[in-house]
Each structure stands twice: as C-alpha cells, then as structure tokens.
Amino acid sequence: MKLPFNTRQFLDVFKSYNQAIWPLQLVFILLAVITVCLVIWKPIISGKIIPCILALLWMWMGGVYHLVFFSTINEAANIFGLLFILQGILFLRYAIIKSPAFELKKDIDGIAATALIIYSLVAYPAIGYYSGHGYPYSPTFGLPCPTTIFTFGLLLMTRKNCPVSILIIPFIWSVFGFSAAFHFGIVEDIWLLFSGLLTTSIFLFRNKLNTIICNILIQILLSH
Length: 224
Description:
The chain contains eight helices and no strands. The chain is an all-alpha fold.
C-alpha cells in the first residue's frame, strides 16, 4: 500500500508538532509517571483517575495531533482523529461505569505490562535517538505510537478483563501505525504491532479461561 506522504514529510509533522506544543511533552510524561504510581500504590480512586488520564491522552492525540497536524499530509488522519476521540470517550465511560482496579501482578501479564510501559517511556525514545531521528523529529510521548504501547501496558494491569470495545481502536492503530515502521524505518514502532497482538492474545486467553472456569462451576452446581 502506497502512503500519500514520504519520510521527510512524516518526520516534519513530528517537528512541527513538538515545537508547537513544547513543553507539554513533559506534562504527558508526568501523567504517565502518575498512572504508574497509582498502580503501585493502589489508592481507591485509581480506578477513576487512570482511565481519565488515558481519556485525556487519546482525545489529545485525536483532536490535536491527527486533526491539526497529521491531517496536513494524510486525509485519513481525519478519520483516525475521530476514532481517537471516540477512544477517549470510551475510557471516560470505563472510568465512570466500571471504575476498574489496576495492579502490578507477578505473573506473565505483569511482566508483559511492565515491559510495554518501560519500552514506551524509556526504550522507545532511546531507540529513536540512536536510529537517527531524535527530537524534534521523533514521536514523543503523547503521540499515537508510544502512547498506544503505554495504553496496552496499563490495560494488562487490570484485574479483570476490560470491555472488548476498549481494545478495538488501539489494536487497529497498532496495525496501521506499524506501517510507518515498515515504510519509513521508524524502528521503535516495530513493537507497536507486537504490543497489540500480545495484549489482545492475553485478553482472549483470559476470556477463554474464565469461560472454562464458569462452565466447570456450573457443572459442579448442577451435579448437586
């Protein structure tokens, strides 16, 4: 699939965005650190605050990055902008209705979640810098690819499965965003698709396991 822009145009969008919104990048990183601290400390209000922070990030990416900046070189950004805003609304709904519990689990989910979060905040910018497109020509945190990886990491820290609707848009972006890595050599984005596949697979396994357990319990109850 031929993209309607080249590597230079793609990187120039990052430059324009980063220069225009500085120093908000630092605020977004601070919000990410706050969410991690909330997961570790597990206060009662974390189930409200964490999804609200995710909602803010996704609405920002949709309304500012996609609709204002990325749309200048790619008309499809208008569609993604609306989808990202919708994702933000879904996170707000998630916070209000479900108020999910987050925890750093000592299992495969916890290991995967920790790896994705560390990658999005530390390894992602480092790999970008050593790949030759450091700041301001880099997707800083608060932009779709690193923030989507971070989102997957947080969702893996939920105690119970989140609604399937929460996963759809991030997974779609993990597929489309990966195309940039493939076409333009944005090496750090290669983990984007992996994070989407990994998180979705884990949640599907959780659902299947929960179904099996429920069926066993039903059979036990019926046998009595």
